Amino acid sequence: MLKTDILEDFLIENELGYYCVYGDFYIDPKYPVSKAVISHAHGDHAVPGHHTIFATSNTIAFMQHRFTKQPLNSYFPKEYKQDFKIGEVQISFIPAGHILGSAQILMEYKGVRYLYTGDYKLQEDSTCEALEYVKADVLITETTFADPAVIHPNPIEEIKKLNSTKLNIMLGCYALGKAQRITNLINTYCPQKIVYTHHNIAPIHRIYDEKGFVKLSYEIYNRKALKDGQDKIYLVPPMTFHNYFRAKNVVRVFASGWKRLQNYNDMTLFISDHIDWNDLNHFITEVQPTEIWTVHGEGIHLKHHYEGKIKVRNILK
């Protein structure tokens, strides 16, 4: 593959999102568009109002739960590795390992393979499809934690920290993906603890129970839940966690890879659903790209690391 075969403007960022002019579609657009290809159902990647939506069936299930006014006939579910075309661009979804239904988006045009990762992780997570590797000429990767200083710890050892106290725990986590992964980790490695979910998290748990890979053990939170007994964990979304300070005799914990979200808590819990520096470089080795285009973060460390080896740049705007 010659570098000159790569179209530098194959995917560009504009005010609506990431646009492919050669297929006339957007990837993870921030505002309503005619044709949207969605990598996964988190709110910074999936919004309502598109005329046509291509995504995995599990991603569509979460979108239908959130976007009740979105017409059902606007969804076009695709299985993993199922080829389909938009314009002259051939597309397929590859498991990304981020959350249930998450996908890398492999695009092929005039013999060149462009791989948009979306959000992804290599760490084991039995609640969602495991990441799969494919070769690509251009890797378009998220760079949330693309920093040599960021190495995620073992999630099993992190979750076992919760065994160090019998006090009840208020655990902040994102409602989609993180809460289900945390529930399964607690069920597996802290089996004596009872998991209670906030009412905004419970419906997502039910979708995971219906469409996922493991059965989650949990109860719905009620006002008396944390007042009686010990060894209980209450999973709450970030807004609730950050606004609730009145609880007494409760250990405050937030599950995240961000250090700033560990500040002022009673215990750290570094569990991330994004790749760290080591996993990113392993992933690059597997994909074997000629060029790397970076999105969703800072790519300067990658640029320096691969200087003289692989061309690295931010996606064209």
UniProtKB/TrEMBL annotation:
Alphabetical list of SUPFAM superfamilies matching this protein: Metallo-hydrolase/oxidoreductase
Alphabetically ordered keywords of this record: Exonuclease, Hydrolase, Nuclease
Coiled coil (residue ranges): none
Keyword Hydrolase part of the UniProt annotation: yes
Keyword Nuclease: yes
GO MF assignments: exonuclease activity
InterPro entries per UniProt: MBL (IPR050698), RibonucZ/Hydroxyglut_hydro (IPR036866)
UniProt name for this protein: Exonuclease
Species for this entry: Sphingobacterium litopenaei
